[in-house]
Amino acid sequence: MQEHIVVLTGAGISAESGLSTFRDSGGLWEQHSVYDVATPEAFARNQELVLRFYNERRHQLESVQPNPAHRLLAELESRYRVTVVTQNVDDLHERGGSTNVLHLHGELTKARSSGFPELIYDIGYKEIHPGDVCERGTQLRPHIVWFGEEVPMLDAAAEVVRTADRLLIVGTSLQVYPAAGLVYEVDIDVPITVIDPGEPASVSRARVIRKGASDGLSEWVTTLA
């Protein structure tokens, strides 16, 4: 049976492709407060602003490419069973070649009904405008888990982590809950490695590689040979 590597990824892995992060910009994302563009209240208050913001993020995503870190994770699938659990809403893991990706916080390339959340649509890099509705007549919104909303994929992610033979954490400070709690689901004898150039949150017994995602992953992969 193949060894199962579970990888928890955050904004740091996408930053190397040129995508902005909350953490590196003082709580602002492209000069917007997260409370103006990433909460249900913001959508209710100024639907046009929120939709425009995510339309711009979708255009930006289309213009960037997966970086070596994304491709390294995909290449691991030739030797291991690999599951990527990501806090990122971009599609760079998939475009980099990973075939088993669980998105905790939604997907930028999808829209869903604001009235019937089970109605989800692949839209690629297209825009969503006020007046765009689902087949049941309610406004479409980004398929993103906003602050204050439940994380519907959290239980599935926890189940995946419990099956890990190795846990790899890349590009996340593990400070955003409930996602940060996933590290505590791993079995006590499972090796944990954290790759982050900053000061990652304390993870007991973890090996820490203080490098960027691509360089850190390259170093870690050599230890598997």
Task: Characterize the structure shown.
28% of the residues lie in helices and 21% in strands. By secondary structure, the chain is an alpha/beta fold. Helix 5 runs parallel beside helix 8 (213-222). The radius of gyration is 18 Å and the shape is elongated.
Topology at a glance:
Layout: E1 4-9, H1 11-15, E2 28-29, E3 32-33, H2 34-37, H3 40-45, H4 47-63, H5 68-75, E4 81-86, H6 92-96, E5 101-103, E6 106-113, E7 120-122, E8 140-144, H7 154-162, E9 166-170, E10 192-195, E11 207-209, H8 213-222
Parallel strand pairs: 1-4, 1-9, 4-5, 9-10, 10-11
Antiparallel strand pairs: 2-3, 6-7, 6-8
Helix pairs in contact: 5-8
Structure summary:
The protein is 28% helix and 21% strand. It is α/β, with parallel strands linked by helices and 225 residues long.
